[in-house]
Amino acid sequence: MYHIIKPITRLAFIFAIVVLAACTKDHDGMMVENDSTCKMQAVPGTVVAHSPQSSQIYLGSPSICVLPDSNYVVSCDLNSTLAPYVDSPVTWVFLSENKGKTWNKIATLQGQFWSQLFYHHDALYIMGTSKSGGDILIRKSGDGGHTWTNPVDGETGRIRQNGKYHCAPTPVISHNGRIWRAMEDLMGGGTVWGQAFRAFMISAPENSDLLKASSWLQSNRMGYNSTYLGGDFGGWLEGNAVVTPSGDMVDVLRTNYQVNGDELASIIKISSDGATASFDPQTGFVPFPGGCKKFAILHDPVSNLYWSISNYVPDVYKNGNAERTRNTLALLSSPDLLHWNIQGIVLTHHDVLTHGFQYVDFKFEGPDIIFVSRTAFDDGEGGANSQHNANFITFHRIPYFRNYANPAIWQWLLPH
């Protein structure tokens, strides 16, 4: 089933063709997931996972991968201040064998956080951290996500230890014979959120054993600088490994900057061997709608454009906190990573406080984009705790994205 975007009212959200997701209680009575036993209130797209706010456990870090057999795998993590989730967070892995119509949980990973799925050399991998500010981990699955290796040391997937590492579900890509993944650490100091993040790139030869720490090379770190943007720079994080039109590797990052409603992305240059990161503050900041929230960027060889789905903030919502305005998703494209165009609105809801579609991860599939969202939405059990503390992971499809046209009823949400 395609999830076709349909305009409803001026202030209503866009509904995809909605699947009323069935659900079941987990063994602890708190988690709610799909099966065939109960029904949820309508939410946009297809529900992959759900956790009511009463559990004090929120869903995050959605990632999606298309397997060679055309099945979809999605991962997400559980966020909570409750023990044991702080020191040993949990990641769930889901499988769809029918193009996203239904989902089944196939694995639970202890001590896996902020992770990205990717497929390489006949195996599925998941790469992230062991916890918030933990080690860098990678696991491998040879059976499509049902079973995974255990990263106990530097020979089995514990890539970097004894640090405070950070990342998000952003692309892991192949380029010039290497695998690349943008990361940050939290060792930059500072007393204000954002100042501790130091960006770097980690890479390994394509034919190396990705579970061995010795395979991976790190660049130098690029940290907070109080002089950037006239003193209004608040830090960078959640970077994307992207190849420029000229074939160079860069790290394109979410940027903590909010002045006059403007949002920016930062572009850090990476040397061809992956060892050196550098940044020019005169040219490295570029306008990017939704740039102060997490986004992913992929290059489409068919259109020869870069694409993203971001939390663009329409003018009507610019009187609030842009970093927490996550009620609208826009489809963006760019020919060069420097100039970004809004192709149209993908999802929106009039409420900013307890509704959000965020942390999107996506893939191209023929003429379509498929994506997963960390979604805060009504669920008949009190709704989301906030737009940030999401109660759903949802799956969506944008048919024929290269020809996407914004519905006329949402023209008012686009820049004037």
From TrEMBL:
Protein name (record): Exo-alpha-sialidase
InterPro entries: Sialidase_sf
Keywords from the UniProt entry: Signal
Top-rank lineage group of the source organism: Bacteria
Signal peptide per UniProt: 1-21
Keyword Zinc: no
